[in-house]
Specification:
A six-stranded parallel β-sheet has the order 2-1-3-4-5-6, sandwiched between helices. It is of the alpha/beta class. Helix 7 (195-204) links the parallel strand 5 (181-187) and strand 6. Helix 3 (111-121) packs across helix 4 (123-132). The protein has helices at residues 48-61, 74-85, 111-121, 123-132, 144-151, 156-167, 195-204, 220-223, 225-236, and strands spanning 4-7, 28-31, 67-72, 90-96, 181-187, 208-213. It contains nine helices and six strands; from the N terminus they run E-E-H-E-H-E-H-H-H-H-E-H-E-H-H. Helices cover 39% and strands 14% of the residues.
Length: 239
């Protein structure tokens, strides 16, 4: 069976996928990127391309041959690079709540503002504040406390490195090079990635499907997990 590799986004971690592990009907590989989650003590990387190379090396180290791939948010930028660089091993691709432009036009605040506030407020308050924007109901969302706890594992260097990595990256001109069958999955209340980013992925990648989840924000897998899992199972098939 082809495993599914899940790559989290900015201020995320492998633990955020706990609800999906065992429910998708296939093997899963959940990664913590350097500087985040269980790897918070490791030096973060400050380029999307460097994270992509790290993911490919880690998958190889784990002995995974062919794999399907999902990336959330910043992780979606990373897996776009992985899908181009490791296309012989990538089966199906899921780009979840992400885009092709790292500057994040239309985001709830600019990247420059996030950097400034991180310096002023510190890592913990910044992580909690940003994590709240991922949910339709912000801090009142049932899944917010656990998600915020994962986000708080990242220190200030990882916050700056992740923001720098996104700010410097743009993949819009390379979308046509993604050969994998691709699902674009997005919640229509997402405060980080606006519809033009989603449309660009949908129309720029040669073989795509689009799933728009109503009344969900940036963390569809935590707000509407049953629907999220059903969409993945339908797209990925039996493995």
């Amino acid at each position: 069976m082809t495993p599914l590799v899940l790559v989290h986004g900015f201020l995320g971690g492998a633990a955020q996928w706990a609800g999906q592990v065992g429910r998708l009907g296939r093997d899963t590989v959940t990664l913590d990127l350097p500087g985040f989650g269980a790897r918070a003590d490791e030096a973060p990387l400050d380029r999307i391309e460097a994270y992509a190379d790290w993911v490919i090396a880690e998958i190889t180290r784990l002995g995974v041959d062919r794999y399907d791939l999902l990336g959330h948010s910043m992780g979606g930028m990373i897996v776009q690079e992985v899908a181009r660089r490791d296309r012989a091993r990538v089966g199906r691709l899921v780009l979840y709540a992400t885009g092709a432009q790292g500057l994040l036009p239309g985001r709830f605040e600019t990247i420059a503002e996030s950097k400034r506030r991180a310096e002023e407020d510190g890592a913990g308050p910044t992580a909690r504040r940003i994590a709240a924007t991922w949910f339709r109901d912000r801090e009142a969302a049932p899944a917010y406390p656990a998600c915020a706890a994962i986000a708080e594992q990242a220190g200030l260097p990882a916050i700056h490195a992740g923001l720098d990595a996104m700010e410097a990256w743009s993949g819009g001109d390379l979308l046509s090079e993604i050969a994998a069958d691709t699902l674009i999955l997005w919640g229509d209340r997402d405060r980080t990635y606006q519809w033009p980013q989603i449309k660009r992925l949908w129309t720029g990648i040669p073989r795509t499907r689009l799933a728009v989840v109503p009344d969900a924000a940036h963390a569809v897998h935590l707000e509407k997990p049953e629907l999220f899992d059903a969409l993945l199972r339908d797209f990925l098939g039996p493995g």
